[in-house]
TrEMBL record:
Species name: Physcomitrium patens (Spreading-leaved earth moss)
Organismal lineage: Eukaryota, Viridiplantae, Streptophyta, Embryophyta, Bryophyta
Protein name, UniProt field: Uncharacterized protein
Keyword Oxidoreductase: yes
Gene Ontology cellular-component terms listed: cytoplasm
UniProt function note: Catalyzes the NADPH-dependent reduction of glyoxylate to glycolate as well as succinic semialdehyde (SSA) to gamma-hydroxybutyrate in vitro. May function in redox homeostasis and play a role in oxidative stress tolerance by detoxifying glyoxylate and SSA generated in glycolate metabolism and GABA metabolism, respectively.
PANTHER family per UniProt: CYTOKINE-LIKE NUCLEAR FACTOR N-PAC, OXIDOREDUCTASE GLYR1-RELATED
Length: 323
């Protein structure tokens, strides 16, 4: 068993990486079940299979707000004292941070993971950041002799719980291969996109489209409602046509009720739109729709909606311009 790789969930978060137990079995929890016997009768059969066949890793976790690690510790994970100590203790370190500043701080800060890395180790950054940040972290990691993989994910809380995330990876191919069994526990698919920066760019393109779709969907629901249409019927009609999307079907009903249970926080959607617009500017690609949508999300964030789900963008459009 000592030959098994260790895995480090560097940052565990309430929104994303810490689904509530014992109702569901998170793939992140699954990863820590190295040689532990599953006792929860709430575990879905599919997860049981995944855990038995793939998820036998020894996990050490660290999070800035340490209490967020407690549920994982109580399931058998070890507590890391700092990013540095945790990376030093593990073969492969996964990082999941809010934004570029957080990703840099945890990788390269005074007690950053880079200080605990050395040849033979790997650092996988799963955060959604811009390509420049990813490249800076890659350079710092590689200077230690360790390997780097960027691996932002498409998919939110439920796919994380179900182990059906989509990994958009780029960087050191040997680390991609070494980390693949771990990615397969957490995800349903993975793309290897070549040079560092390509994974970040792919993620920003996807989230730029997603943010615009959600804003447009919100406008449609509100316009329809103002003309007297039933929003539930609008969702049904959209769901049967060429523009049907799982996102509309999943979020639409709760949006109609004015409920926005957070899976993907609005503040992070705005961060991704901002980064996408900056990337577009850098490469000289006009993105006027994304720029306008970014302004709308920024306004929603400054109006206190940042911690709501990004579908709360509909609230920013609930104004009566004829009043
Ligand atoms: N939620 C989702 O559905 C998805 C999110 N993502 C991306 O994943 C990342 C995480 O998202 P999510 O979990 O929702 O975000 P949260 O805001 O819930 O969590 C952010 C995490 O980053 C930590 N953090 C922030 N700044 C620092 C810092 N300077 N030093 C140390 N730790 C820091 C926070 O620590 P603390 O707990 O102490 O505040 C927390 O653990 C983001 O990049 C997001 O865009 C990607 C796909 C889907
Ligand atoms: O970055 C967040 C993505 C959310 C999703 O793909 O549903």
């Amino acid at each position: 068993m000592s030959q098994l790789p260790t895995l480090y969930g560097l940052v565990a978060t309430t929104h994303f990486l810490l689904p509530k137990l014992p109702c569901v079995m998170s793939p992140y929890i699954a990863l820590m079940l190295w040689e532990l016997v599953l006792v929860s009768s709430f575990v879905w059969p599919d997860h049981l299979e995944v855990i038995c066949t793939a998820a036998r890793y020894d996990v050490t976790v660290w999070n800035r707000s340490t209490s967020k690690c407690d549920p994982l510790i109580s399931e058998g994970a070890k507590r890391g004292e700092s990013p540095e100590q945790t990376a030093a203790a593990c073969d492969v370190t996964f990082a999941m941070l809010a934004d570029p500043a957080g990703a840099m701080e945890v990788a390269c800060g005074p007690q950053g993971a880079v200080k605990g890395l050395s040849a033979g180790k790997g650092y996988v950054d799963v955060s959604t950041v811009d390509d420049e940040t990813s490249k800076a972290i890659a350079e710092a990691v590689r200077k230690t002799g360790a390997e780097f993989l960027e691996a932002p994910v498409s998919g939110s809380k439920k796919p994380a719980v179900d182990g059906t995330l989509i990994f958009l990876t780029a960087g050191d191919k040997p680390l991609f291969e070494r980390a693949s069994p771990m990615l397969d526990v957490m995800g349903k698919s993975k793309f290897y996109l070549g040079e560092v920066g390509n994974g970040a760019a792919m993620k920003l393109v996807v989230n730029m489209v997603m943010g615009s779709m959600m804003a447009s969907f919100s406008e449609g629901l509100l316009l329809g409602a103002k003309t007297g249409l039933d929003p539930k019927t609008i969702i049904e009609v959209i769901g049967q046509g060429a523009i049907s999307a799982p996102m509309f079907a999943m979020k639409g009903p709760s949006m109609v009720e004015g409920q926005y249970p957070t899976a993907f926080p609005l503040k992070h959607q705005q961060k991704d739109l901002r980064l996408a617009v900056e990337l577009a500017d850098k490469v000289g690609q006009p993105t006027p729709i994304a720029a306008a949508v970014n302004d709308l999300y920024a306004q929603a964030k400054s109006n206190g909606l940042g911690d709501e789900d990004f579908s709360a963008i509909i609230e920013a459009l609930k104004v009566n311009v004829n009043a």
